Each structure stands twice: as C-alpha cells, then as structure tokens.
Amino acid sequence: MKDEMLKLGQHARHASRAMARAEPGAKNRALEAIAGAIETQSDRLVEENARDLARGRDNGLDAALLDRLELTPPRIAAMAEGLRQIAALPDPVGEISGLRYRPSGIQVGHMRVPLGVIGIIYESRPNVTADAAALCLKSGNAALLRGGSEAIHSNTAIAECIRQGLESAGLPADAVQVIGTTDRRAVGEMITMNQYVDVIIPRGGKSLIERISREATVPVIKHLDGVCHVYIDDRADVAKAEAIAYNAKTHRFGVCNAMETLLVARGIAEQVLPGLAARYRETGVELRGCADSRALVPAMQAATEDDWHAEYLAPILAVRLVDGLDDAIEHIAAYGSGHTEAIVTEDYTRARRFLREVDSSSVMVNASTRFADGFEYGLGAEIGISTDRLHARGPVGLEGLTTQKWVVLGDGHVRQ
Amino acid sequence: MKDEMLKLGQHARHASRAMARAEPGAKNRALEAIAGAIETQSDRLVEENARDLARGRDNGLDAALLDRLELTPPRIAAMAEGLRQIAALPDPVGEISGLRYRPSGIQVGHMRVPLGVIGIIYESRPNVTADAAALCLKSGNAALLRGGSEAIHSNTAIAECIRQGLESAGLPADAVQVIGTTDRRAVGEMITMNQYVDVIIPRGGKSLIERISREATVPVIKHLDGVCHVYIDDRADVAKAEAIAYNAKTHRFGVCNAMETLLVARGIAEQVLPGLAARYRETGVELRGCADSRALVPAMQAATEDDWHAEYLAPILAVRLVDGLDDAIEHIAAYGSGHTEAIVTEDYTRARRFLREVDSSSVMVNASTRFADGFEYGLGAEIGISTDRLHARGPVGLEGLTTQKWVVLGDGHVRQ
C-alpha cells in the first residue's frame, strides 16, 4: 500500500511540473474535453453508479446517503456544465502584481503560482470528483483524489473521462489521479507524503476532518464548524432585522452558513422577537431561548449551555438576549466557530466595531449569513470554506489553490 | 510545566483580542516606549547579559556563539533603533481591499487582520527578542517568545522593557510573553497548544527547525535550506554574468541567499568560467566542479553528488556545466531547495520561461540572489524567509504575520 501510494505521489509531483507551466488554452481544452466525455459517456456513468447504488442498498445506506450517491442524467449534465463554467473563469496562474522599482534599482513583485500537488479526501457525492479535479486543473495543480468507498465505481468512471480529457489536450494524464483502492490505509499514506503532497483538503463530516487534521503532517485547509450568529442591535431597522434573521435561518437548514444562534439586544427584543418567533414557528423552526427571551416568547423551550455551542444544521435556533454590542461580541468570541457572523444595525460606529472586532472568516453588516459562499462572493467556484486562519480563510476558490512567489528583474544588479 | 504553558497560552489568547483592536497610535507608542526603556536600561541589560556570557564561557561556548550572545551598548542602541523603524512602518491591520458590488447588491471585500497568537522559537541572539516582539506587536498579534537558554538573563531583562512599554501605552502586558523557564519541555507544549497558538515560527539551525516541524501540531512557517543557484545562459552578457555570479557567492558567505551552485551553459563556459574562477580564487573561494568544468579550470576539485545538494554557508562553490536552459531548470528542480534562483541572460523568451518554470520562493533575472531579503524587497523588516508554500513564501514581513477575513456590507440583503 505504502509503495503504491508513493508511486501515485511521484507521478503527481512529476505531472504537477507540467501543469504549472501549461498554457491557459490547454487547460481549458482539457476541461471542455472532460465535459464532453462526461456527456457522451453519460449512460456508462449511470451504469457504474447503479453498481454503487446496489451495493449501498445491500449495505443498508440510508435514503439521504443514497440520494447523495446517485448520478442521474440531469446531474451528469450539471457536472459537465460545472466544468465548462470553470473553464470560463480567468486563469489565476502567472499573474504578476505589485512590480515596483526599489532604491537599489531592481524591480520586485509577486507572481501567482500553483500550490503543486493537492490531495482531496471526500465522501459520497461523486460529482465532487469532477468539481475538485477541475478546480485543481484550472489552477495549475496536480490532484490526488480519494472519494468515499461507497462511490468507487462512479468515481473510477469519472476518472476515466478526466484522463481522456487531459490526454486529448496534451496534458499529463497523471495530473488527476483518482485513488482506486478502497483500502483505508491509503488515506493515512496520502496525508503524510510531505515530499509529494503540498496540501490536503478534506471535505465531509466533522469526524473525517478532525481525524485528518490530527494525523496529517501535510498542511491541511479545512472547514470545521459553522456556528453562525446574527446579532440584532437595538439600533437595527426592524424590517431588515426580521428579513435577515429569517433568511439566515430558514433559506436552507443543513448548510454551514445558516444562522444557529440569534442574539438580540434587550432594547429591541420586545419589538422584533415575538413577530420573528411567529414566522419561525410557521416554518417549523424549533426555538430554544435564554430565560429573558422566554419571558417575551413563552412558547420557546429553555436553552442549555450546549445550545450555545450547537451547529444544528436543522430547523432549530438558539435565541439569547444580550445587553448590547459588547455582550454580543463576547458571546460570539466564547461560543462562535469563527465562520460567519452578521450584525443588523443602522449605527455607523457599532457596524465598524463589529467588522473590526469579530474574528470570523466572514463578518457582515445588514446581510444574511447565507451569503458566505464562493459564488456569492464572486469566486466563480469554490472548493470549500476554510475556518483556518493561515493561507486561505472563508470561501476558497481558484486563488486559494495558488500561492505567490517573488520575482526580481534586474539589469546586472548586485548587492552593495 | 503543561499547566504553566497553558496559562501563558490563555493569557496570550486573551491579550491577542485587545491587540487585534488596538489603534495604530497605541501600538506605535508602545514601540517607542520599549525603545526608550531599552536605552535607559542599557546598563542593566549589559549586566544581565554579562551573567549569560559568564555562564556561556563556563559551559565552553565557542567564540562565535559568545559573540552572537553579547549585548554591547552599540548593539543595544541598534536594537532600540530597530524598534523605532518598525513603529514608522505602515500599519497593516484593518486594511480593506477589493470591496466590490456583487449582482446580489451586497458589497464584498477583504479586511487584513492579525493571525492571533504567534509563537517564536529562536536561539542565542538576544536582539531577536526585541525584533520579534516588535513585529508581532505592530501586526496586532500577541507573541510567545522562547529564546535559547544560554540567553535567559538577557531575554528576561529585555522582556521587562517590553512589558513596561506595553503598559505605558495602555496595551496588555501579556501581549508579549517571554518564556522564563529553560525547561526544554516548554517547547513541546508550545508547539502543540493549538487552542492558544495560531502559528509557530522557528528561527535557528536546521536541526531545531526540523524537530519543530516534525513535532508541531500548530502550523509552522519555516525556513529550511538555501541551496541557491545562478544559471549563466549562453546568451548572457558576460560582464553582468561575472558581476552577479561573483556577488552572489562572495558578498557574504554564511547567509541563506548566497549562491551555492553555479550552473553555466556550455556555449559560454569558456568565455566566463576561467575569469570568474580566478576572481573566486583571489577571494579564497574553493571551487568544486563537474568533469566538463574542470576541463576548463583544471585547478578545481572534483565535485561529488553531495556537492549538488550542499548548502555550504562557506567560501565553497559547486560548478556545473549544463546544455542550456532546460538542463538548468532540471538541475534546479532536482537539487534546489526552492529558496532563490537567478538566470543571467539577454534572451527574452528564456528569461520569461525561467521566471515561470523555476519553482522557488524568489526567481530572478539578471540580479544577484543576495537581494532575496525583506529589506531589499521593501517589507521594511522581516521575521524570516519562508521556504514553505502555504500562506507566506520568501521574505516574511508584517503582512506575513496577518491574514484576511471577508467583509460583507448590505442594506438588509437576504439570499434569494
């Protein structure tokens, strides 16, 4: 197993050098060709996927997991369309910025370059294979993809389309390698091959991500919790507050940028909370409140300490009254996960303080936390949302899969 | 020990929040006050340093180490001057960039923010205590500093000046904590306190850095080898080639950006190598060449495979003839450490290819590798040079001690 993985790593490293110097046109032709192969081989993808589904049913996978695993013709078409959208994005590689003359006479600037080899570890959805491959390819990286064992036939079939596309564009087929074994030790090797892998991006449940962070010696870009807060300040516009708090909770429940705790300043609670509570109830959202908020909305259950820490990913919302901005910032610092927080206020100074003092990957004024998303931010696509601090923070698009090197231009300059 | 370190970590985390929102004026006043305290307490620093020196002599430290350890009045004045220079740099924290309207109507951009708590582990030079503290402070971070045990009295005395300066500016004294114990287990705790430390920067010998990278669970920004190359292309200007190759090797020997291997295209070797070899010999540089280069300069020793890997940090130079650009790029990919490489050429296409295809933290055309330095690049100061790929690459200044979060400004916007 170790030898097999080292061989894949070696191939990836070798391919990464060709990818780093590949022209934008070649990369885009590969993406178009992969999209074409996925479309023309749609029937085969459905067949291979049927094998995964059958085995999944035999193994007793639940309906939600089977749904995530399934490839239908419309889903396959959407996968191809996603590839074409990534082809249409600007190429980040080679961009030179900040080239300035220094007193010594040299010109110094930055050039954007690929990270090298990116290892992506993910769970059931087979479309991640195409998405992740496309983002790595477009950003000039080589990729090692390790999907869930339950999707192995689907992923292998998609990998074959990717291989064909790369070859038809004259790029190394090893630029994207899907790990074909379901042996779990492969992951252990992949996350410790520091000589061949530059960064690991795990996508999936919290236990997967925690295990990988703990065991990896390769740097990891990861997403842990999304315990997002909306704070309604006592100088909020009530209509905006209701719209944002309602949208942040109910637009989608199972997503990391959904609000999980609503903080309301005491001075405005009586005005906004009863109305909001009624709207939440109509939508089937269960409310769990502090004692003070329950005095205003007696139908709420009592929140426990655990509720302030909870990422429900479900129609449940924790509600707490706070004294004001300082109290809200303290609550977020104590219980938040550093993902996304929003303030609703018309007060200029408080808005500025919230933006500056809340330490999260996205901080917002008068907008729904649901906007924390690569597409909404204009990245064109996203490989994930990072809750780490180093390198990439928040939604990670093509730029997050690159780094910068220094370029120095001289005319025979030497150091005095 | 564990409890003690966790307490320091907790204090650092707490102080980091106050530092993140500190005004530029307060941070600069603290830096000026620290500089003042260092100057007025110069005598005491010399006394405390004398204790370290005496113990160092008793423990048989060699002359070079004792020299690095020594604080003289001029060195103390330089330390204070360094603090004032850092105070004069622009404050990186809070800078908002790229704020753009999205089709949804929200405005999205980046805000530069501190990393949080930075742990710095270093060896003998006590001036690093003041330098590192100043860079962390200016960039809005809290710092945990762990110097060499041989400098413990000097570092503790400098720490006291830092504490006074922070307090006089109304900033938390715990924003810079110098670890007062010489117990080696303190390092082990520091590099695994992920809840309290956001990044570790080791500065010192390779064995220290390797040990820390291996054992740390906190992300590390590090500098390993500097096996730097100059490639003299056959379309080089001979005068520029000689000036650059001579300067890159002989300007200083013991520095990471000194050239260690000179690659010369066969087509120009006869023109440049004998003259250069004579100049190197006059300066006392020992040359170790491949068979082909020795045919041109018979006085050279024969290089072995080890020489292509060597970071001499000494007046020794490996010399190899190559067929041309491709061969040079291959040699650098095989033996380089990704630090700094330069091409000397008048050929436009080859210069462009070298810049794009050589994967090092600094790539240069017609300039000496000795320019790879934070001051030369205009960073104002540097905490070190990173040979890592993620987050910071090459010279790391104040910006490398910060990260960016997303800011979103709306007017009641919700996701459709």
From TrEMBL, chains A, B:
<dbReference type="InterPro" id="IPR020593">
    <property type="entry name" value="G-glutamylP_reductase_CS"/>
</dbReference>
<dbReference type="InterPro" id="IPR000965">
    <property type="entry name" value="GPR_dom"/>
</dbReference>
<keyword id="KW-0641">Proline biosynthesis</keyword>
<feature type="domain" description="Aldehyde dehydrogenase">
    <location>
        <begin position="308"/>
        <end position="372"/>
    </location>
</feature>
<dbReference type="GO" id="GO:0005737">
    <property type="term" value="C:cytoplasm"/>
</dbReference>
<comment type="pathway">
    <text>Amino-acid biosynthesis; L-proline biosynthesis; L-glutamate 5-semialdehyde from L-glutamate: step 2/2.</text>
</comment>
<comment type="similarity">
    <text>Belongs to the gamma-glutamyl phosphate reductase family.</text>
</comment>
<dbReference type="Pfam" id="PF00171">
    <property type="entry name" value="Aldedh"/>
</dbReference>
<dbReference type="GO" id="GO:0055129">
    <property type="term" value="P:L-proline biosynthetic process"/>
</dbReference>
<dbReference type="InterPro" id="IPR016163">
    <property type="entry name" value="Ald_DH_C"/>
</dbReference>
<dbReference type="InterPro" id="IPR016161">
    <property type="entry name" value="Ald_DH/histidinol_DH"/>
</dbReference>
<feature type="region of interest" description="Disordered">
    <location>
        <begin position="1"/>
        <end position="24"/>
    </location>
</feature>
<dbReference type="InterPro" id="IPR012134">
    <property type="entry name" value="Glu-5-SA_DH"/>
</dbReference>
<keyword id="KW-0560">Oxidoreductase</keyword>
<dbReference type="InterPro" id="IPR016162">
    <property type="entry name" value="Ald_DH_N"/>
</dbReference>
<keyword id="KW-0963">Cytoplasm</keyword>
<dbReference type="GO" id="GO:0050661">
    <property type="term" value="F:NADP binding"/>
</dbReference>
<keyword id="KW-0028">Amino-acid biosynthesis</keyword>
<feature type="domain" description="Aldehyde dehydrogenase">
    <location>
        <begin position="9"/>
        <end position="285"/>
    </location>
</feature>
<protein>
    <recommendedName>
        <fullName>Gamma-glutamyl phosphate reductase</fullName>
        <ecNumber>1.2.1.41</ecNumber>
    </recommendedName>
</protein>
<dbReference type="InterPro" id="IPR015590">
    <property type="entry name" value="Aldehyde_DH_dom"/>
</dbReference>
<keyword id="KW-0521">NADP</keyword>
<comment type="function">
    <text>Catalyzes the NADPH-dependent reduction of L-glutamate 5-phosphate into L-glutamate 5-semialdehyde and phosphate. The product spontaneously undergoes cyclization to form 1-pyrroline-5-carboxylate.</text>
</comment>
<dbReference type="GO" id="GO:0004350">
    <property type="term" value="F:glutamate-5-semialdehyde dehydrogenase activity"/>
</dbReference>
